[in-house]
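Thread: Newbie trying to understand structure tokens

Hi all, I'm a second-year student working on a class project, and my supervisor (Dr. K.) asked me to get a predicted structure for one chain before our next meeting. I've only ever worked with sequences, so writing a 3D structure as a token string is new to me. If someone could post the tokens and maybe explain what I'm looking at, I'd be very grateful. Here's the chain:
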Amino acid sequence: MNTHNLKSKESQDLALHYMKTLVEVARESFLILDSGLRVVSANPTFYENFKVSPEKTENIFLYELGNGQWNIPALKSLLEEVLPQKKVVKDYEVKHEFQKIGQKTILLNARQIDIGAAHMIVLAMEDITARKELEVQLATYTTELELKVAERTAEIADRIKDLESLNKAMVGRELRMIELKKELATYQAN
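---
Reply by user tm_fold:
Sure, no problem. This is what the structure looks like when written as tokens:
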């Protein structure tokens, strides 16, 4: 190997090392995939969140991980366009029943990174299951609150009608009493 190739290989290894180091400290789950969508590396958060080991993850095709649980046709077509078209995948939502961790909603982001001549994909995975559940609860609470407000508004409207009727009756009585007092005063004056 000539000196240029050796330096190039060393700089690629160093760049990959830096990338792995950055990904390791992230709170989200991350995978680094090669151009064939084989896992080069995953961060500890990925292993912890998906309950898998490095031995069952690294050097495995993404679509073969966990008994094929990532073999999702829409995701596959998106990721296969990242490298040749230099596309960026942003906020792609996957709802899936995972074998070891159950039903999850994962938000995926992916982009190409170039390390020397090698093209790789960094795939970030954010578990938004709790957020989605909260959104559903919030929507339910909002609907319930809107129903209660409508119900109370109708009750208040009914009370206002009752008060208006009572007011009308009382004003009518007062006017009638004024008329009667005038008549009485007229009779008494005569």
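A couple of things are worth pointing out once you decode it. The first helix runs from residue 3 to 24. The chain has a mean pLDDT of 84. Feel free to ask follow-ups in this thread.
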